[in-house]
Amino acid sequence: MTELRQQACEACSADAPKVTAEQKAQLRKDIPDWEIVELDGEEQLRREFKFRNFVQAQEFTNKVADLAEAENHHPAILLEWGKTTVRWWTHKIGGLHKNDFVMAARTDQAYQDMQ
Q1: Distances (CA, A) of 76 to 29, 31, 70, 89
Q2: In what order do the strands lie in the sheet with 83-88?
Q3: By Cβ atoms counted within 10 A, which residue in 11, 32, 92, 96 is the most buried?
Q4: What is the pTM of this model?
Q5: Angle 98-114/21-28 helices, nearest 10 degrees?
Q6: Structural domains in the chain?
Q7: Cα 79 vs. chain centroid, distance in angstroms?
Q8: CA 113: distance to chain centroid?
């Protein structure tokens, strides 16, 4: 099977199904550093990335923004001195879709590429 980060994102509509508990468990194996949190009643993937300074954190933030724009799938990104926190979820369905796991894997790859 293709690595999660290499899989294509699917077009998503408001009636698209959220991932099941079984799918979540399987997909999380590929993104072990992400946690599932619930904010405003919606499950989201969240991870904090650490950097040596603000400039590196900003560079990473821009890379994630470029990944998001390329897929028209946009996360919440918090940029701080020495860290960036990213949250992925699918706004249209109010929770997690496979696309969020794909984008989390791509975010991990962007981080690895900077190390």
Answers
A1: 22, 18, 16, 9
A2: 35-39, 42-50, 83-88, 76-80
A3: 96
A4: 0.93
A5: 10
A6: 32-114 (3.30.1360.20)
A7: 15
A8: 16
Q: What CA–CA distance (Å, rounded) separates 48 from 1?
A: 28
User: Which pLDDT score is estimated for 1?
Assistant: 43
Residue length, the chain? 115
* Greatest CA separation for the chain: 42
Residues of the chain with pLDDT under 70: 1-2
Sign of torsion over alpha carbons 27, 30, 32, 38: negative
Rounded to whole angstroms, the Cα distance separating 47 from 37 reads: 10
Residues 100, 90 contacting (CB under 8 angstroms): yes
pLDDT for the residue 2 = 56
CA gap 102, 58 in Å, rounded: 22
Contact at 8 Å (CB) between 54 and 86?
no
